[in-house]
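Project outcomes to date are best conveyed with an example. Our students and postdoctoral researchers have been running inverse folding experiments weekly, and each run begins with a structure described purely in tokens. The record below, which covers 107 residues, was selected by the lab manager from last quarter's runs and is presented without edits.
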């Protein structure tokens, strides 16, 4: 199932239910676009009225990571920067982040 299909399923489930908690497995956020991921997670969380649980991790498969352009040795630093950057997007009117791996200005 493509990732966008899963996100629409979570959103629909969040809108159609009142108590069920929704969540991911472990998302390897260092391999995803930070801005798109932050917006997707925020949309699902809003549709579910705060019942979305976003699982994240650093991963373990070195070959897979490097196939996706992530250097295995720096994965946890990338995860940390991704989390910090997403928090900026979620909490600031005009977010910006300037890390070693993640950099953006949203105006």
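After processing, the design step wrote out the following sequence:
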């Amino acid at each position: 199932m493509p990732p966008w299909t899963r996100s629409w399923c979570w959103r629909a489930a969040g809108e159609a239910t009142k108590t069920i908690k929704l969540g991911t497995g472990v998302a390897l956020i260092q391999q995803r676009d930070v801005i798109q991921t932050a917006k997707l997670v925020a949309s699902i969380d809003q549709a579910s009225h705060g019942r979305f649980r976003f699982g994240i991790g650093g991963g373990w498969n070195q070959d897979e990571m490097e196939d996706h352009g992530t250097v295995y040795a720096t994965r946890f630093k990338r995860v940390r920067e991704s989390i910090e950057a997403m928090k900026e997007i979620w909490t600031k009117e005009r977010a910006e982040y300037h890390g070693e791996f993640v950099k953006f200005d949203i105006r």
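The chain has one domain: 3-7+22-105. The chain has a mean pLDDT of 88. The training component of this project remains on track.
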